[in-house]
Amino acid sequence: MKRVLDVWWDGRIVGQLTQNQHGALGFAYAPAWLDDDRTAPLSASLPKREKPFTKRACQPFFAGLLPEEGQREAVAQALGVSEENDFSLLDSLGGEVAGAIEILPAGAQPPPPSNQSPERLDDTALLKFLDELPRRPFLVGEKGLRLSLAGAQSKVPVVLVDDAIALPAPGQPTTHILKPPIERFKGTTENEAFVMRLAKAIGLQVAPVEPRIVGGRTFLLIERYDRIRDPQGRVRRIHQEDFCQALGILPKDKYAKEGGPAFTDSFKLVREQSSVPALDVLALLDAALFNTFVGNADAHGKNFSIFYQIRGPRLAPLYDLLCTAFYPELSPAFAMKIGKRATLGELDARGWERFARDAGMSLPFVRQRACKIADDISGKIAPVAVEIVSHGMDPGTVNDLMSFIGERIEPCVVSLTK
Questions:
Q1: Kind plus residue range of the DSSP H or E element containing 402
Q2: Residue 233, CB-side half-sphere exposure with 13 Å CA sphere
Q3: N or C: which end of the chain has fewer CB within 10 A?
């Protein structure tokens, strides 16, 4: 027996996601969506067409809406379904995902704007909430909540009410993402807040982040770039997809060495999809250089996205920036090699030359841009450290991060010419 879910976008049905009796997914656009010249494809990997898409074609996009690794396993256990069953997971979680779409049981309507007020969380409730997240990601099973975000780290979509964190009312778009620290690594809240704010300080486009603390517990509050307010003050969802979804690559293959996007694929995608490719190619170059300099080796294909503004597709603001090199337990290998060089220790002028070719740019321009990024980081790193500590974050961890990143700059610059 075929199971069916409706895929909605801004109050209209885009198409139907199906699962046949053998468990295979399929997706087909609705005729009305295909007939409207103003409607966009769901994904760069799913162009508008009458012929249905097979599991192989549509699974990367839909699986890419779901959590990964331990988060996925915990969600599946809480729901009592197989962690391999994308359809069942989306059936339970697909009401509020990354981007503009909503995935609902066939025949169900998206909940209208609710008169119910969001449930504010006082400090006691927030601490309980933080305790429950590892066991019950996205608060699965909570009445009225159908939430999902991609990624392996614990996080949950929320709203703010007078600067207080709240759970959304039924049908209410979330505006922020709450991200607790990773328990097995020291100071990940300080780390991500520091690196994200450092990127912003040197002029990169990043999702706004705020480190917070309650009852001695730290967490990060991230403003969603895929949400905007219309002239009437209503929150609207903006469609987006990560590079793996756009390229038709499964989340489990997100690392380049496993078949995920490499820089060649990423720059090509941005040139083909962006409405302002010159600006976005430069932004992607700056992001690659910044990640190399600050030690973010985990910048894989699901940590870059395209979002679909009214004026056309653009490279999304950066997110999930973390100095992974700060933790010796983590691999130092780049998620996307720099010119076939896997680590900072391997980087040399020939590697940068190959990287420049992959990016479609000249080596002198890449060197010039890299030196500017290095100088900007060196000039902003101390003020950003002071800023993060002012939010109540641990000064020892922040100072250690500042020193660690500062010591990487010279080897990175030297590698451009050695």
A1: helix 395-415
A2: 0
A3: N
Give me the mean pLDDT over the 163-192 stretch: 89
Q: Which of 265, 298, 320, 358 is catalytic?
A: 298
For residues 19 and 54, the answer to whether their CB atoms sit within 8 Å is no
Query: 298 catalytic, yes or no?
Result: yes
Cα-based distances in Å from 331 to 242, 250, 295, 369, 376: 23, 22, 11, 27, 27
Distances (CA, A) of 7 to 11, 17, 93, 123: 10, 7, 13, 36
Yes or no: say if 391 and 307 are a contact pair by the CB < 8 Å rule.
no
Contacts of 236 (CB under 8 A, 6+ apart): 10, 173, 227, 228, 229, 230
Q: Does the pLDDT value for residue 137 go beyond 70?
A: no
Q: What is the dihedral of CA 236, 241, 242, 243, to 10 degrees?
A: -150
* pLDDT greater at residue 165 or residue 230: 165
Query: Residue 307: how many CA atoms within 13 Å on its side-chain side?
Result: 20
Eight-class DSSP state of 53: B
Crossing angle for the helix pair 349-359 and 363-389, nearest 10 degrees? 100
pTM: 0.93
pLDDT value at residue 135: 67
